[in-house]
From TrEMBL:
Pfam families: Polysacc_deac_1 (PF01522). CDD domains: CE4_NodB_like_5s_6s. InterPro entries: Glyco_hydro/deAcase_b/a-brl, NODB_dom, Polysacch_Deacetylase. It comes from Mariniradius saccharolyticus AK6. Residues 32-288 form the NodB homology domain. Keywords: Signal. One of its GO terms (biological process) is carbohydrate metabolic process. It comes from the Bacteria. Gene3D superfamilies: Glycoside hydrolase/deacetylase (3.20.20.370). The lineage of its organism: Bacteria, Pseudomonadati, Bacteroidota, Cytophagia, Cytophagales. This is Polysaccharide deacetylase. GO terms for molecular function: hydrolase activity, acting on carbon-nitrogen (but not peptide) bonds.
Length: 288
């Protein structure tokens, strides 16, 4: 992680979420800039990333669930990390009377993400009960750790819903509750207005749309981050700011990925086959 930050600092001007807000709303000019965002509030942000951003004075923003912070309950995808996904797919097929040949992890995650939050929790809890799998240890930071990050002046903290649903799969009532409650509760925990948000999973059209953007606007959110893979620009909607993922690989891999830009996604599919969005789009087209 240290070496990756050094690469980013060498080639980009590191800016804050507040700078991005000024870019979109106040005409601040930004050139060759990078803003680091981290979703889910994993404890490694505090134990690994926080010491490094203090060392190099790098501003970042993180996106957390007030529910996870206060209760310590993991998100469903954190619970199934490391599971035997072929066995999990068999269990899924049994529950939904379907039949799939296992292809890769993206296929399984695509199937899960086609469900409502209630269905996902029932599926994961049922699988754990069927195979005697215990709950995993807490993954989210505590409130005390979150407040320490905030007090550093380097970390802006935004909302990430309460339970990490795929918003597009939920009713308008559920979506409003997940977004509004997370924005309000986080504001209460931090003692400040919640101005930033990151969509769970975050693929435009598949995971969120205009409905969700309208609710965020009503809640006073200024910037919301998607996982659309492209560079940000003034042409973006402030409630659908794109990002490039750099969660895996060493510094040279990350640099090559950023240098390839929009060509990276095509190369990844060529090397690794269909990705999760491909499976999910396929399901929508076929109705399966």
């Amino acid at each position: 992680m240290d070496s990756i930050l050094k690469v980013l600092m060498r080639y980009y001007n590191m800016v804050s979420a507040k700078d991005l807000e000024s870019f979109y709303f106040k005409g601040l000019e930004l050139k060759n800039t990078c803003h680091i965002t981290v979703d889910d509030g994993d404890i490694t942000v505090y134990t690994h990333l926080f010491p490094l951003i203090k060392k190099y004075n790098i501003p970042i923003s993180i996106y957390v669930s007030p529910m996870a912070v206060m209760t310590g309950k993991n998100f469903w995808f954190q619970e199934i990390e490391g599971y035997d996904l072929q066995l999990f797919l068999q269990y899924y097929d049994k529950q939904y009377n379907q039949k799939h040949a296992f292809k890769n992890k993206y296929q399984v995650y695509a199937l899960i993400k086609s469900l409502t939050l209630k269905e996902i929790h029932q599926l994961v809890d049922g699988y754990k009960e069927a195979y005697g799998i215990p709950h995993k240890p807490r993954r989210c930071m505590t409130l005390e750790q979150l407040l320490e990050l905030k007090a550093s002046g380097l970390v802006d903290i935004g909302a990430h819903t309460m339970h990490h649903p795929i918003l597009k799969n939920e009713s308008i009532e559920k979506v409003r509750d997940e977004i509004q409650t997370s924005v309000e509760k986080l504001g209460e925990l931090l003692g400040e207005q919640t101005k930033y948000f990151a969509y769970p999973n975050g693929v435009p059209v598949i995971d969120f749309g205009q409905r969700e953007m309208n609710i965020l606007n009503e809640c006073g959110v200024k910037l919301a981050f998607s996982t659309q893979t492209k560079n940000f620009s003034i042409d973006d909607h402030p409630l659908s700011v794109p990002r490039r993922g750099i969660t895996k690989g060493g510094p040279m891999f990350v640099l090559a990925k950023l240098a390839l830009g929009d060509k990276w996604e095509g190369l990844k599919r060529l090397l690794k086959g269909k990705q999760e969005p491909d499976f999910r789009l396929g399901r929508r087209e076929t109705g399966n």
